[in-house]
Amino acid sequence: MDYIANTISNLASQSAITTMSVGNVIMIVVACVFLYLAIAKGFEPLLLVPISFGMLLVNIYPDIMAENGLLHYFYKLDEWAILPSLIFMGVGAMTDFGPLIANPKSFWLGAAAQFGIFTAYFGAIAFGFNDRAAASISIIGGADGPTSIFLASKLGQTDILGPIAVAAYSYMSLVPVIQPPIMKLLTTQKERAIKMEQLRPVSKLEKILFPIIVTIVVSLILPTTAPLIGMLMLGNLFRECGVVRQLTETASNALMYIVVILLGTSVGATTSAEAFLNSTTLKIVALGLIAFMFGTAAGVLLGKLMCVLTKGKINPLIGSAGVSAVPMAARVSQKVGAETDPTNFLLMHAMGPNVAGVIGTAVVAGTFMAVFGIV
Q1: Which residue of 228, 232, 343, 362 has the fewest CB atoms within a 10 Å radius of its CB?
Q2: What distance in Å separates the CA atoms of residue 131 and residue 23, rounded to the nearest whole number?
């Protein structure tokens, strides 16, 4: 009988139920809501499913993120900025930079969308964060999860890396929900119905030279951006040069999805109740939303100005794609435009600002690192 009693006692003491707090229960519910949004509503499932499951795991079994826990080793790859850089290589291998090359004016729209980053930076300072924490939080406004993780790691803000990463990826996933109301509020029906001229064909030589030239120019000016810009452009060079098909397929498929699994689950596992349910996290989430909204609005407003200057040749909706969520933001521009006129095709035009936004956010991150003397 003593053996049976001891066995039952040991099993009971090892059960997670006996150690689970109210906060853990809340985070498990949040994880289930995220899983529902990803699976039932299709809100960027490739990101939300692993993030949500990591959130679920750590709030049931906290030791999974302890020194010898499985996800601890995944998370070290985030801290060392390895996974964000590899994500950029995959994005480059999957993305056609042709629309940006064909319409260089798109760079201005991508730059305008970075306005949200600086809004959040000064907002974070006002909220009491130090300058490095404010810089790390502000990058959420670019809707770029890998860059947010990269900068927070480089600036030594690992204590708030989890909330920053979750906020960034959450807003990336919610692009189709957050952006359309802002876009419609700032544009007229006539502007949303503008049809843009077909982009000029881009030669293979241009597509090969573009990643090489961008890498040289940006890395010479801001060497700290080389891990991100370099990997982004390397992936794109794989795609465009035409002689490394196997590398292109690996970077854009197998490697990309492996990295997403590692990064997503480890990011989700940073959201233990103790680390996530506090006022600091709420401030970060609020600042991230403000940054994202301001970035979207700035892109649309510059699009409106360019529409006036070009006498109606630019649809302001493509300005919202200046945030870095590739290709989600471009798809939202297409969707909102098609709601006004189903024959309007804006996707390729919106890809220009979208790609410019990725480059722009990486450049802003490199600028912050240079300002703080990080090499």
Answers
A1: 343
A2: 30
